[in-house]
Predict the structure.
Amino acid sequence: MTDFKPQIIAFYCSNCASSAATIAEGMKKSLPENIRTVHVPCSGRIETLHLLKPFEEGVDGVYVAGCQEDSCQYISGISKAARRVEQVKKILESIGIEPERIDVFNLSAGKGDAFVDTALEMTEKLRALGPMNPA
Amino acid sequence: MSQEKPKGPVMIIGGGIAGIQAALSLAGTGYGVYLVEQKASLGGMIPELHRLYPLCACCKLDPRIAACEQDPNIQVMVNTRVLDVSGKVGDFKISLETDGGKKDVEAGAVVLAAGIETFDPSRYETYEYGHLPNVVTSVEYEQLQKPLGPEAGQLKRPSDGKAPEKIAWLQCVGSRDLNQCDAPYCSSVCCMYALKEALNTKDWSEDTETAIFYMDMRTHGKGFEGVLNRAEERDVRLIRSRVHTVDAFPGGDDLEIKYADEKGELQKEIFDMVVLSVGLRPAGEAVELAQKMGVDLTADHFVHTTPFRPVATNVPGIFACGGISGPHDIGQSITQAAASVSEIVSLLSPAPFSPPEAYPEPRDITDQPPEILFAYHLCPAMGSDVGANIEEIAKTMPAVSSVLEVGGDVLGSLVEKLKETQATRVLFGSCTPVVHKPLMEAALKQAGLNPYLYETVDLRVVDPDTARAHLQDRIRMAAARVALISPPLLKTYPVEKRALVVGGGISGLESALALANSGYPVTVVEKEKILGGHARHVRKTWQGYDVQEYFKTLVDSVNAHEHITVMTDTQIKRNSGFPGNFVTTLNWNKTDVDLSHGVTILAAGGDPIKPDEYLYGQNDNVYLWSELALKMAEDPSAFKDADTGVFIQCVGSREPGHPHCSNFCCSFSVRTALDLKERNPEMNLYVLYRDMRTFGERESIYREARERGVIFIRYDVDNKPVVESSKGTGKARVVVYDQVLQRSVALEADFVSLQSAIVGSHNEALSRIFRVNLDANGFLAESPEKLKPVVSTAEGVYMAGLAVYPKDTEASIVQAKAAAAQALEILSLDRVQVGGVIAEVMPEKCAVCCTCVRTCPFDVPFIDHETGAAYIDPGLCRGCGMCVAECPGKAIVMATCSDEMLTQASAVLLSTS
Amino acid sequence: MIVARQKPIEEIVEMTQAFHKLLVVGCKGCVTVCNVGGAKEVAILASALRISGKRNGREVVVGEHTLERQCDPEYVDELKDILEDYEAVVSIACGVGPQFIAERYPAVRVFPGVNTQFMGGAEEHGIWSERCAGCGTCVVHYFGGVCPIARCSKSLLNGPCGGSNNGKCEISNDVDCIWDIIVTRMMEQGRLKELIEFKPPKSWATARDGGPRRMIREELVE
């Protein structure tokens, strides 16, 4: 189990993700290899289906990284995304899958290395849960 | 008006946020601009700060710097000092020292946007700065907090690296102090940044104790009071006090603060760290330069301007904005920069460095399979193998038809390669892709393609072990996406070169005049029968300038102007359209008239609320502040014989209902008290306040008033003054609890002036008609794109004056001119393009369910009954994609971020190759 | 519109577990508008079913299709060719849909994917409430444009019961007492005294109590 490397798809809002990536680079930190990112103009663009599709493809976890609640350029994008993540959690739960496999994070320059830390946090959580599908 | 304006480029001295704003705005209006910065990079103070408040906007600086660097009409000159400026408007000569060499340039106008620095607190012996390592300045503290700072965002105190558990901020270090630091003014920004730093500290660790030692808490700006309230809710302690000394606490690195509390009693408290909230001052070199240019300075060494032409110096053609003209925050600096643009446009014709681009008609690529040109740009900081990796990865992707490394003239080589290969899509790899987007769009347009047929790849990798895998993922993803982009529909429309200004007060008229002086027709609509608004009862500015006299001249110039149509007694009924092409229905003389215009400026003003306390309306000697001012203006001997007058501040302000601070009431009361003292030096005058907010250089009149015997008594919001009618005399008897004397005081007043909260006059109706949002206090909200203080939440709709937030005459004029300058960026275009990164409804799939109508944060979609489907105006859509996500019938699409891209994303990323 | 709610997915998984080839069929009518049975929800449900299958090591093929309306036979006809590839259908239209599909394709197993709730409308995005009980004899004009049949817990026609409490119904503080609203509305219209007039007991013969309903419009029938 120790060598299990969860496959993760991360949706990033291109507004805050870009500056977060700059900071991460400045801190000489990089996303681990198991995280694959998809960029969207605003996290409000992400649909329930887009969050489910990676699970269909067999990934072990998904997360959305967006702006702070009070700093969305489109006012309510990140809060909409958070609600969709909630819906996906319910769907996963109802089909017997751990809802912890999906999460939403507010990126903030104020919390320093959040860009990379969220990825590590998610990876650790999924390592504990184990693979999504039977081998 | 017909006299020919001189022509020329503009010299901007200083590459901070004010200089950047002025450069972009001027270039956007067609001017050639030199942007000179002494340091090695643009940005000024902002890169040193950690988060901006109230809205974080760190991510908005880099794209602006990039825009300056990429604009052919902006010549950025860093590492450059200005040695001398000579000549006159239309014909300035500027000698520069750049990278060791000398250079002369000519310009038609000069903007001084340089020169703010923070106070060096070493000269205060009592704070031990420089001796005790745990005493730091606020700027140093922000560095400690910054994720890219020395501690990577993990706050540690300098002496021993311990995470501080208890931090104190000392306010007014190098401000409001004549004796030790020669800075009698208030630096205006420090209360806000101390609150911000304390809140950021709480974000980092909620348990850290924070305390701010202050004299008056000055959160007078838009949205600032909310930050203060939030700080209090999160247990940031606010200690009203005078700090005596900071000393090392024996036996460790802790610090002991000795201070006198409000009652004058000496207290002591131990802290882990002390942050000195250092004030702002004009930079020595900038001051010298200003003097060399013959620009007048104030006693505080800021550039001297008059309130009615707030960004103009005494030298025609030289303008000042940002820190050199006073202690201003970021929002004010940006507004002033834009205002100086409007001044320049009215006196100088543009001399662009490069003519406006003419683009070929995009060619039709509907039936062609996507052929991708993969261009990449490597920075010196990138690993040597990145290029080789890219070339190798690209080979594995069939859709990529050619690969090109670019450097130097990126735009030129891209266009050439696109024409040569006839590729239909561009994939661009670089660091920080977001700043290259305008470049991609320009390249595609020049190559005769739809400008949105590109995707970017971030090439920044850190860990060499994972570099290749990351690059491969990103390139594969971007290639898949770019292949799926269908060219979004683009249309261009001619710009209706007229402005609609809503509101005939000072702000509206100044905006109108600025636009008309730039040569564009303006229609001013006023609801009342006469022009004036709030200005009719403003007597003097805080400095003592006569507002009525100025206002009369303003109205005369507006009425006489050939380009301005004034419509009084006129109502606004409807508005439709998009930036460049609005139609507004006006009701005048009982008939509806349609007005076509390209931009809108909302300046509908504000009013003081009518209080229901302090015997207002019940005792004839109790006045609303506007009534008092009007009476004084009309009758020069009014109140001359009064024995006692009382001003009560924050009436209905900073309380539930109207939690905002009304900004200029403190200065109003102090100014009025001084003028009353002029009429009768024997008069007893009392100002009952909660915090004296005579911010910036207004502090000087507060000091003068105290010197002249005006008495200031602080009251607590939980123990407000009481006004009762004195039996027999009819005077108003005011009883207030004096915090210093610790007892109640009764004042027999001949008159009482109530400084009540200012609220927007017609904001709710206007927000519906013009589809703009309001903030929590009912004022027009600022664009969520940030750092755009006069742009509303709707594009093409700008705002100024009391409708935005309470402010004094000078600030209203600055804002009005800034709004005009922003509006010029649209008016000066011949055509506007609509479409691109937007959502589009496919009418045949639309179930007219209203989901999009209810979802859009900007209220753009509506149901078009003629087509029986929802309609999203391509000119108004902001491209967030929320409606696309929410539409239950999948009837809304976004070509640049389609469902296919997002549903196939994981399959693309996970496929093994 | 007809307002429906999605069935718990575990229930859908449970009832369809004997089948390996499922077609999820949506409807562009009411259920699209109430965000439960349109093209978007079809894709979400289909995806969830696939994920569930994969997780449990079962090979499940899930198709997606959305009809213009499931309550008109011409549209239901569209499924003819598509259905050949599937063993069962999950209809996420209102209760009418699965029945129309089952009638047209008697050999195919049809499962309902939603629970039909009521006839009502959207108060705002995401909130719907009942407005009509389909009783067959509309009376809203007597009550200020408000229907006590559908909206009073007891369908009372002659004023509130003793359970009306500060504008709320005794069954729950989240439910308005509709009689409170009717009285207020009638006061605003200056028609309060009309409520004093006695309303005789309602004939339920036109409602469900009269048995299953069918309607023939002679002028329309060929």
Summary: Chain B has a mean pLDDT of 91. Chain B touches chain A through 63 residues (CB under 8 Å).
